[in-house]
Write a structure and sequence with these properties.
The complex is a heterodimer of chains A (about 800) and B (about 100). By secondary structure, chain A is an alpha/beta fold. In chain A, about 30% of the residues lie in helices and about 20% in strands. Classes of the chains: A alpha/beta (about 800), B mainly beta (about 100). The complex binds siroheme, flavin-adenine dinucleotide, iron/sulfur cluster and FE2/S2 (inorganic) cluster. Iron/sulfur cluster binds next to loops of chain A.
């Protein structure tokens, strides 16, 4: 025989719990009591109902038919007055007894109405014109009354008060919000955030009075105003009290259950010492907490349904409350701490009061412990996850508040399907990452190495890190190698450079021999070391060819079938008929499979076999365009003042001059530049590693750290200068600083924000550390030492340098 | 079978040899020893002789998958490479042993 389940309270938590039990096919005969005369409606929507954006029929979640269809006996409009725990019966106010085997109490809470003189009329409940805001009936009455009146005062500047104020504007002409604390939503927001919210609310036409305690409701027959502690009176004919909520726990209390601020329950939602009585929703107190929002109730309902239908390990551990609301038309999100608590709590705040935008995050030990967003909650999904799960946070803290053009990390690892592709370059799914972690690999880099996730364009690295953290359940191991310049030498770049200088290590093999624990070589570190040593030693660098990646051994870019691409230099994207003719002839003579214009304003000959490279270079007799190196690549230009009717600077000549000077200089990552003749930006200078923009008055702006590849970022304005010579000099100085301080493969779009544009300005322009001259000297030395690699064609540098490693069959 | 003179392979690099129908990548490690493996990457056919090596591994130049030079095993989950026995004789000749 099914057990008799009785539920007291037919609100959001009670009805949801019953739905969850039905979904688990729990074997119960269910009886529900609700003292409101309806089925279950969405209480949250009362705000919309008041504001007139929803009508009554739209807010019902479970109408009376739903109860009938599911075999539930609903006693609506009936209040339970008492529970007999011993005989296991509940009693309605008129004395009718109903037996239960299991009982769920879901009586929610009610509006807290402070004992303000004049608020009640003896024997008549509230003074006429005074309303609470909790139920459908409250809302209906309020609307009906407000329509015929003019001025309302809302007491309480929390969520409910704000919603009431906004809604009332729909029905009468003047609304004043009176709040006793110093700023709005003081439970969720800091004073600054509260003030910004206030600004937005006032713009809507709601008058706001803070720091104002209401001491009396004035008016004998009808309300005429409210009186404040400071003696002011605010005339009005409607008063809405929204001064907080209190749990409906009296019935439980008089029936002998343990009640504090709510009905005390354990992790199975069981009332203390009661094997057959449960409580759920706003009426409960779990581990000392009571909740006033729906999200925690859903968690509780699930656990209770699991438990009562026999799932042994179901347990509720409390909810981390993150609020995301539209309060009086303003987006507000708040979670965790409102203000920092410890000296070393990290706080990042952004405020733009005129736009009504406020953002603040509080970070403790690298974890998000509090966040507030007002006016713009674009980043809320990520923040809520970070808060909930303690995700790793981006180093660039501003990314917590703004989309800096980076990957949007708004997908939650938990929500993703196992077969969802995380790394779109290497086709790695969430499931693969998770099983790698479960296989014991608990560092982000370790997982990336094993699965190849994040090893393509790199945009998914953040997401991969999140999944690893999530899958490791907080046991992520910090990878010491993360700070090393290359994985095989245990040192960050500055330390490594110091050691290299100290021991005069001029070859990659000597670095391994001297600086790695067992003197071990590491194939994956060779390329980065080669680049670094070349930069540091210039002509003195001992160039061991095996340290080079294949592209740098043969000065061309390896392709999917083992052939190579050849991109001759075409400075500033400017060519000549003779050059074009030569390229055409070479392509024809060697039957180059494809000739293509590149995104870098030059011509690419693709599909060239390795052994044909020297001949093609000889026939072209043009310098290398370095399309294969971690090096200075191109300077794109536009036609500029020479031809363009808008041009204000000779961008073409300057671009060519820059490319001529810095061609092929190797760095930690690629360097792509552009010079554009006016801010219309046809050469896309704003999104280049270094972008130069001609502006009116013969000046040039220099932007650094821009990107429009896997990552999109507008460069930061480094400086505006008067002459082309200054552009060239400062470009070189910046490049050299990047070469010396950038991490291996760290493009300028990551480097510049890491160092900070202000710091860069002080270093490169104000010469705050006195390094400007040495940077200039170092880059000049590298420029002077430049040799075109394609000259290396007549006699190979190593045996079989251009011998093919083909023929190859492409497997896929 | 003699593949050629060991000086055909620069120290720390690899070169590919065709033996009948088989493509073999031979690597000359910086400690002077030699290793031989199938030349074609099982991932997407990358030319392993163009890869970078250390004393233990070769890294395919196309997508950077890594294989053990001694066993041919992938450090990921790719099928292993075939390992061939090679040595350098007293006349600096690179010898592929019969299998
Ligand atoms: C040929 C070209 C495409 C085209 O047909 O136009 C090209 C081709 C390749 N790009 Fe590119 N990129 C080309 C312009 C660009 C541009 C546009 C530009 O230079 O103005 C970008 C965006 C700007 C930037 O660099 O951020 C671009 C962003 C990338 C990226 C993403 C870099 C990033 O960190 O965001 C990669 C991958 C990488 O560097 O790891 C990449 C990598 C590659 C490689 C080298 C892939 C590789 O490692 O083998 C491609 C070589 C193909 C081949 O077989 O030769 N390519 N690539 C363009 C050559 C330009 C040139 O003349 O040098
Ligand atoms: C205007 C308004 C706007 C809100 N906006 C949001 C929002 O945007 N986001 C959010 O998360 N939350 C919001 N809330 C809060 C949310 O509505 C509550 O958290 C939720 O309704 C609580 O559910 P509950 O089942 O515990 O209580 P309730 O929904 O109040 O249900 C309790 C039910 O039990 C009945 N009852 C009480 N005692 C007895 C008894 N002795 N016998 C029989 N029946 C009894 C009550 O009449 C009531 O119907 C808002 C609330 C209001 C009033
Ligand atoms: S950027 Fe200015 S100068 Fe260059 S083409 Fe456009 S309009 Fe002309
Ligand atoms: S082909 Fe070798 S790693 Fe892809």
């Amino acid at each position: 025989m099914p057990q008799r389940l009785v539920v007291v309270g037919n609100g959001m938590a009670g009805a949801r719990t019953v739905e969850e039990i039905l979904a688990r096919r729990g074997d119960f005969t269910i009886t529900m009591f609700g003292d409101e005369p309806y089925g279950n409606y969405n209480r949250i929507m009362l705000s919309n109902l008041l504001a007139g954006v929803e009508d009554e029929s739209g807010i019902f979640l479970n109408d009376l038919g739903w109860y009938a269809d599911n075999g539930i006996t609903l006693h609506h409009g009936q209040r339970i007055a008492r529970i007999d725990r011993f005989s296991k019966h509940v009693y309605t106010s008129d004395g009718t007894a109903t037996p239960y085997d299991k009982l769920i109490i879901a009586t929610g809470s009610r509006a807290h109405v402070p004992p303000i003189p004049g608020i009640h009329r003896s024997g008549r409940g509230y003074h006429q014109g005074v309303f609470a805001f909790r139920t459908l009936d409250d809302t209906r009455n309020m609307i009906r009354y407000a329509r015929d009146h003019e001025r309302a005062v809302v007491i309480g500047g929390g969520l409910l008060g704000l919603e009431a104020a906004r809604g009332l504007q729909n029905h009468l002409s003047h609304v004043t919000l009176v709040h006793s604390a110093g700023h709005l939503m003081n439970a969720q927001l800091s004073a600054q955030a509260g003030d910004i919210l206030r600004g937005s609310v006032e713009k809507l036409g709601i008058e706001v009075v803070t720091g104002a305690r209401t001491t009396e409701i004035l008016g004998k027959h009808a309300v005429t105003g409210v009186k404040l502690a400071d003696g002011r009176t605010i005339p009005c004919d409607v008063v809405v009290v929204a001064a907080g909520i209190r749990a409906n726990s009296e019935v439980a209390e008089i029936s002998g259950l343990v009640v504090e601020r709510g009905i005390v329950v354990d992790d199975q939602m069981r009332a203390q010492d009661e094997p057959d009585i449960y409580a759920v929703g706003e009426c409960v107190q779990h581990r000392g907490e009571t909740y006033g929002l729906v999200a925690p109730l859903w968690d509780q309902a699930r656990v209770l349904a699991d438990h009562i239908t026999g799932k042994a390990d179901a347990a509720y551990h409390g909810s981390r409350v993150a609020t995301k609301l539209k309060v009086a038309g303003v987006d507000v999100a708040a979670m965790g701490l409102v203000a920092p608590e410890r000296d070393d709590d990290e706080v990042v705040t952004f405020a733009e009061p005129r736009k009504g935008v406020y953002k603040s995050v509080i970070i403790r030990d690298g974890r998000l412990v509090g966040a507030t967003l007002v006016g713009d909650i674009g980043k809320v999904a990520f923040l809520m996850q970070a808060f909930d799960r303690g995700l790793a946070l981006p180093e660039e803290r501003a990314e917590l508040m703004f989309d800096l053009g980076g990957p949007s990390a708004e997908v939650s690892p938990a929500e993703m399907a196992d077969d969802e592709q995380v790394c779109n370059c290497n086709g790695v799914t969430k499931g693969t990452v998770v099983s790698c972690v479960q296989g014991g690999c608990k560092t982000v880099n370790g997982v990336m190495d094993k699965t190849k996730a994040g090893k393509g364009c790199g945009t998914c690295k953040g997401l991969v890190a999140q999944i690893v953290e999530w899958a490791a359940g907080g046991e992520v191991e910090v990878d010491p190698a993360a700070s090393w310049y290359v994985p095989g030498v245990p040192m960050p770049k500055p330390e490594l450079m110091r050691a290299i200088r100290e021991h005069r290590l001029t070859s990659v093999s000597s670095v391994f021999a001297k600086l790695t624990p067992g003197g071990d070589e590491d194939a994956k570190s060779k390329m980065g070391l080669a680049s670094l040593l070349k930069m540091m030693w210039g002509d003195e660098y001992d160039d061991e060819r095996d340290a080079r990646f294949i592209n740098d051994r043969v000065h061309a870019n390896i392709q999917r079938d083992g052939t190579f691409s050849v991109v001759p230099q075409m400075k500033g994207g400017v060519t000549t008929p003779a050059q074009l003719r030569r390229i055409a002839e070479v392509a024809e003579r060697h039957q180059v499979p494809m000739v293509k214009l590149t995104g870098g304003q030059r011509i690419d000959l693709l599909g060239v076999p390795k052994d044909k490279l020297p001949q093609i270079w000889a026939d072209l007799d043009m310098p290398s365009g370095w399309a294969y190196g971690k090096s200075f690549r191109t300077v794109k230009t536009c036609v500029g003042s020479e031809f363009c009717r808008f041009g204000v600077g000779d961008s073409t000549s300057l671009g060519i001059a820059i490319e001529e000077r810095y061609q092929g200089i190797e760095g930690p990552g690629k360097l792509k530049l552009a010079v554009t003749g006016c801010p219309r930006n046809c050469a896309e200078a704003y999104v280049k590693d270094v972008g130069v923009v001609a502006i009116d008055g013969g000046k040039w702006e220099i932007y650094v750290g821009g990107a429009a590849g896997a990552h999109v970022r507008k460069g930061d304005l480094l400086v505006t200068v008067d002459t082309a010579e200054e552009v060239i000099r400062l470009t070189g100085r910046f490049i050299q600083y990047y070469r010396e301080n950038g991490n291996w493969l760290e493009r300028t779009y990551a480097f510049v924000p890491r160092v900070g544009i202000d710091h860069l300005r002080s270093l490169l322009l104000d010469d705050s550390e006195g390094i400007a001259d040495s940077l200039d000297a170092a880059i000049s030395a590298s420029v002077a030492a430049y040799k075109d690699p394609w000259q290396e064609r007549s006699s190979p540098v190593t045996p079989g340098q251009f011998r093919t490693s083909l023929p190859l069959t492409v497997l896929s | 079978m003699i593949l050629g003179d060991i000086s055909d392979i620069p120290l720390g690099e690899g070169r590919a040899y065709a033996v009948d129908d088989t493509q073999i990548a031979v690597f000359r490690l910086r400690d002077g020893s030699v290793r031989a493996l199938s030349a074609v990457c099982p991932h997407r056919g990358g030319p392993l002789a163009d890869g970078q090596i250390d004393l233990k591994f070769v890294v395919c130049p196309l997508h950077l998958n890594t294989f053990d030079l001694a066993t041919g095993c992938s450090t990921g989950d790719l099928p292993p490479l075939t390992v061939y026995a090679v040595r350098v004789d007293d006349h600096d000749q690179l010898i592929l042993e019969d299998s």
